[in-house]
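Lecture 7 notes: from sequence to structure.
We start with the chain below.
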Amino acid sequence: MRRTVTMALVTTAAVATGVLGAAPSASAGLTTYCIGTGGAVTVPNDLYVPPGESCALTGTIITGNVAVAAGANLVVDGGRVDGQVDVAADGYLDARNSTVRGDVVVASGGYGVYLQESDSGAVTVKAKGSSTIDTFLFADTSTITGSVNANAGEVRLDKGTTVTGSLNTTGTYYTDLHDSFVDGALSVLNSSTGSVICGSAVAGRSTFAGNIGGVQVGPNGPLDSCASGGYFGGNVSITNTTGGVTVDDNIINGSLTVQRNNPAAQVAANNRIRGGVVGDTPATAAAAASAKRAAAADRADNPQERAEQRHEAAVDEAAAAGAARL
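Predicted structure tokens for the same chain:
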């Protein structure tokens, strides 16, 4: 169990750096330690959630950077962070109806990031060394200004989420895009359980390569159920993939390359592919439907459930710690 502390401490950055080397430094020379709950106030410097502690803020404005230490939780509802948020190993950021103007960086082994109806800067999720469920980025009805770069865990963008840059993942557990928009390129490489792109639009080139669990672009595929295909503004390439490839009910304003996939890709006749197909022979819609097979092991894991569990625990711990002195 995490220890209970009744208030937050405000200390100078010099002391914080000397005692807890991971604490941030602010231009104002101060860092606010947050343990417990806080309301609609302005924190005029950096904010730090110490290891193993929970901080739950409602309507709070933080003018500096934020550091969430190892095993710590930061829940922000209706608030704003003007700087960057760094999340350490087993740390958790939960932002709802909020704005993070800076980037969000998740260290290797971070628990995860949940964005709901929120805005943030670019998001980086660093690798832990294997493509397992060790972290997650789940964005729901949110806007990420910049690019998403992830090298671990589960990545799911859902319900009208927009990425103004590119979405690039390597070695994730999976990378899924549902009813969302990427205004740059999309790259999904070496995912252990593959990728599902449904009801979404990608403005730039889309590249899927070396994915083990399969690639499903549109409905009627082996990995997930969804209602519609999507729009791709550039070329789409799906290569060196195992676990099955299905391409169904999409508009591709470029060419589709499907090569060296095992089994061969199933490309339905209802796709509209402006630049034609290179590689495997397109299949009929019936053949695409018959390609359904069991998804890779436990791919149905839902990061939103993990987010809600951590959210509830963090809010309870923060409430038990009492009011943070912000």
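Points to note: Confidence is low (pLDDT under 50) at residues 1-22, 283-297. The helical segments are 13-19, 285-290, 303-321.
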